[in-house]
Write a structure and sequence with these properties.
Length: 143
């Protein structure tokens, strides 16, 4: 008796991954259209931290509607502005510090595009791949 559940699971997993990445790239496109404002080519956006502001609040103000996870955005701010955080602690943002705002397009390129490449590689490796007898022996059999 042949069980094709693993093959379907592999195809389904690949399909879910592709769909997730499609949704993320669609959100990115929508964000780019929404955030498209003319900006000088060589200037870097800066933000001065107000007393009592948290990093999450700064992110909400400077990158509203970003499709990226907050953890990725936090790390980008800390990496660009280590001097603004006491002992590198994200919770200890110094009031009055001038922060460089990360380039959102660059962040998307470094986070989303590698995922798309991985999904394509995963799908390509699973297409045309059949399970050998050794792999089938380890499959769970149901009565």
């Amino acid at each position: 008796m042949k069980h094709h559940g693993l093959d379907r699971a592999a195809v389904t997993t690949s399909g879910v991954l592709r769909m997730t990445l499609l949704v993320v790239s669609t959100a990115f496109s929508a964000w780019m259209v929404q955030a498209a404002e003319p900006a000088p080519a060589l200037t870097t956006a800066r933000y001065t931290v107000l007393r009592g502001e948290t990093l999450d609040r700064v992110i909400q103000k400077t990158l509203p509607g970003s499709p990226l996870k907050i953890d990725i955005l936090r790390k980008a701010f800390v990496d660009l502005n280590p001097q603004a955080f006491v002992a590198g602690n994200v919770s200890r943002l110094q009031a009055g510090a001038v922060l460089q705002v990360p380039d959102h397009v660059q962040l998307l390129k470094t986070t989303v595009l590698p995922m798309l490449d991985s999904a394509d590689a995963l799908a390509a490796s699973r297409e045309g791949r059949t399970a050998n007898a050794g792999e089938r022996r380890s499959w769970v059999r149901f009565p």
